[in-house]
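User: Show me a protein chain along with its predicted structure.
Assistant: Here is one chain, sequence first, then structure tokens.
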Amino acid sequence: MVLFSYSAQSRDGQLVQGTLDAVNRSTARVILEDMQLRVTTLQEIPQENVGVSSSGEQPPPTTESLEPAPWTTVDDPSQPAVTPPPPPPPTQDAEPNHPQNQPTPTAYFPLVDTLRLYAGWLLAGYFVAYALGSYQLTKPLPFQIPYVLAFVYSPLIRSFSLAAFLFLFATSIRRLLPKGTLLSLLTSIVTIALFLLYLANT
């Protein structure tokens, strides 16, 4: 057996020095690597220089610098597993994910505007019928339009025509007046009173 003196680094970077017995230099290096040491210097101490001379001085041993052994990775079960970092949060420029089947709100037309639309078309049709009937009474037409004179003489048609006209007239005035005022309420009362007065006299 040959005595070797070594200098090595442990896994945490600390310097370790000591001696060991081995058959040869290769065996000593293998032993140090099994101890998970990174060999930096390995010195062989001859047998005749093991003891101290009478003068008390020990001859310097022969040194040989060795190339650092490559690191070997050893899995340590006590260390926690390294997890990858979480993905970065989305930026403000990224478009949010909107559901594909999101219901769209339904817009409804106001009731008063709908009634004004129907009353306007109804009154326009009555005016056309009145114009044709009045022209047919004063001057014969080259063609006959059925039920035109019935529109002119019918009290029910006149009542519908007056009701449509008063409704359009009253709602137009209410739009010009501020909401919730006494004039707005008074306009509605006067309109209804005029229509009832017409019905009472027919």
